[in-house]
Amino acid sequence: MVEPLLELRGVNKSFGVVHVLHDVDFAVYPGQVTALVGDNGAGKSTLVKIIAGIYGRDSGEYHFDGKAVEVHGPRDVAALGVEVVYQDLALCDNLDIVENMFLGREETTRLGLDEVTMETRARETLASLSVRTVKSVRQSVASLSGGQRQTVAIAKAVLWNSKVVLLDEPTAALGVAQTRQVLDLVRRLADRGLGVVLISHNMGDVLEVADRITALYLGRVAADVPAKDLTHSQIVELITAGRSGDLGIADPATATV
Hints:
By secondary structure, this protein is α/β, with parallel strands linked by helices. About 30% of the residues lie in helices and about 25% in strands. It has a 6-stranded mixed β-sheet with strand order 6-9-10-3-11-12, sandwiched between helices. Strands 2-1-4-5 form a 4-stranded antiparallel β-sheet, with helices on one face. The chain has a two-stranded antiparallel sheet with strand order 7-8. The longest helix is centred in the last third of the chain and has 16 residues, at about 175-190. The model has no long low-confidence stretch (mean pLDDT about 90).
C-alpha cells in the first residue's frame, strides 16, 4: 500500500458546545484523486480548513510525508506543499493571469518586479498542465470564462511545487464543456503524482475522476473506500443516512453533531 502524502488521525474539532468533527481519519495518496463528500453541515469545510491551517485541532494528529508535523497557520501548510483552491477562487479581476498567479509571491530583482521570469514560469506551468484554452498569460482575469478562471486558480496552486492540492467545488456553476476541461485537468494533476482532494456535491464528477471516496456524515467518517467499490446510490445513502447496506456508521441514529 502506498504511504499517504497527507494524513489526519483522530481529529476532533468543536465550536463551543457544538462538536463538529468526531475522531476523523482522512488520507490523501500520491497520484490519486480523493473525493471528500457529505451533506451541508457534515463537516467538510471544517476539515478542509484544518488541513489548510485556518483552524486548529482540538485533538488528533497531522502527518505529512510520513512524519507528524505541527501546523500553526496557512503559511506552515503552504511550506509543506499543500495548496487550497477555494470555491470563490480568490482571483483579482483587475489583474492579468501572471499577476494573479504570483500575487503575494512576486519574483523581484534589485530594480523591481521580475516580469520576464514570472511570465515565463506562468506560461510553463500552464503548458505543463496541457492548458490550451488560455490565449495569453497577459489576459485580464475579468475577460476569462468560468472554466478558464478555474484553470488559472488551479495552475496558481501547482506553480509552487505543491504536493497536495485541495479543490473546493471546482465545477460548480460551470457549463458542460467547461466542466469537462476542469475534470480533465484534475485527472492530469493526479497523473503527475500529486495528491488531489476533490470536494464536490456532483456525484457524476466524483465517480468519473475519483480513485477514492471519503464520505462524512454529521462529522464522522461513514466510509473511506475505493471509488470503484461504490455506486451512485450508495454514495447518496452514505451522505444522507450515514450507512448503505453493510457499509457506514454502525448506528447512524446515535450520530449527533
